[in-house]
Amino acid sequence: MQQEKRQRLPEWLKVRLPSGDTYTEVKRLLNSSRLNTVCKEANCPNVGECFNQKTATFLILGDVCTRGCRFCNVTKGTTKPVDYEEPDRVAVAANQMGLRHIVVTSVTRDDLKDGGAAIYANTISMIRKHNPESTVEVLIPDFQGSIESLDIVIRETPDVINHNIETVPRLYKLVRPGAIYEQSLYLLKHVKMTSPDILTKSGLMVGIGEEFEEIVDVMKDLRKAGCEILTIGQYLRPGKRHLPVQRYYHPDEFVEFGKIGKELGFEHV
């Protein structure tokens, strides 16, 4: 804890406070549509930049998560009933925003038999109906390893299925309790085995205490699982109850990760 208090946020990570007419317009539209975004619920520092570019990641299945990941700002606790009209509202809002690439994620709903897979499928279907020219990306939870639930999503053939690996295996119990590293890898592998035309994507945070070589090993594991797109981002502590930042990576190090990723065969890093 003391170590992080002594660290100052590097200049390259400082952003302006959200403002501007477009930011206000997008915020108003989302509020009037009774829709959540991971931008807001996760307290993302890039929300101003994204909203001003008329982009947002829709958060379905409520705003309360059943997991207790120690890096995430989304509320944990008792979930709300499923809103079966939400998929249509997401699709209409995406159309009103003029989105050409629509990203949908959710809280983890371990309380639902299918983990929310049917709502994901319906959301994809509604987006296709209202936005036939747009591409669709879903950032899904692990569905507690249920291939049956995963297949419900796959059958709707989104353009991209994203599932974040989040951190290195050694830190899983600390960072991501309730998740299993090998299970997340298999989820991505199953998508490619079942539907090769769907792009697979994953995300990894750095700065929580991992070693450089551990990051590279995760990248290798993801490639073995057929993952084609990888995002690597600096972990920023949302609040005092979350894990402290152990290290801020320099932009040059992210360039190095990009080079390594390309050498490993990722289409985009």
Number of domains: 2
How many beta strands in the DSSP annotation? 9
Describe the global form.
Answer: globular
- The secondary-structure class comes to alpha/beta
Strand order of the largest sheet: 1-2-5-6-7-8-9
Radius of gyration equals: 18 Å
Beta percentage is: 5-15%
Mean pLDDT: 88
**What share of the residues lie within helices?**
25-40%
**Cα-to-Cα separation, first versus last residue:** 31 Å
- What's the main sheet like? 7 strands, mixed
N-to-C series of helices and strands? HHEHHEEEHEHEHEHHEHEH
Low-confidence stretches: 1-6
Number of helix segments?
11
Task: Describe, in plain words, how this protein is organized in 3D.
The protein is α/β, with parallel strands linked by helices. It has two domains: 146 residues, no CATH class; 100 residues, Transcription Regulator spoIIAA (2-Layer Sandwich), CATH 3.30.750. It is 39% helix and 14% strand. The chain is built from eleven helices and nine strands. It has a seven-stranded mixed β-sheet with strand order 1-2-5-6-7-8-9. α10 links the parallel β8 and β9. The chain is globular and about 45 Å long. The two termini are 31 Å apart. The N terminus is likely disordered.
